[in-house]
Amino acid sequence: DIQMTQSPSSLSASVGDRVTITCRASQGISNYLAWFQHKPGKAPTSLIYDASSLQSGVPSKFSGSGSGTDFTLTISSLQSEDFATYYCQQYSSYPLTFGQGTKVEIK
Amino acid sequence: QVQLQESGPGLVKPSETLSLICTVSGGSISGYYWSWIRQPPGKGLEWIGYIYYSGSTKYNPSLKSRVTMSVDRSKNQFSLNLTSVTSADTAVYYCARETSGAAWHDYWGLGTLVTVSS
Which residues of A touch B94 (CB under 8 A)? Predict the structure, then answer.
């Protein structure tokens, strides 16, 4: 199985901050990486697919980059609605695997 | 807007079978792969497997011996059965849709907590 390692596991940030989350795959996955957001009590929502493609309807403050084993999710200017847990997921091969999540909290 | 809703017992006894249904609304179940994913309390997400609308399946090898998935196109539903459960199967169970042509998930359910306890 491909192991996905996210860092940090949590971070505190202020409204307006630029936030970067990293995800590392245990082997190369090309660009077969997705990012999604999860808020308590809500269904997870897709943000990014193919490492850098923005899902329809997702604001452009979210961006993704990377290829191979190292990937990043960036939120350009954090807003109150962005405080949530973010996950990466590889879909290069089955079984699909996920990062352990990064919880973004208010400073 | 596609919506998914998990349903089923919130409490299952050890050694029994966990059974969940996912109801899809706002879109057809046809043409897509449908996944089950779970998250034990305080732990990471685990992909359980998928079922295609036609009925073909792929399961996580870690659970393959205990998992069965099925689909009911007439009801726009798909289901998960997990046999011989233990406390390690206590988790929030999510159903989700794999987007067409790639195995990332564009729609998820809210999730349902299933506790395994006597």
Answer: 43-44
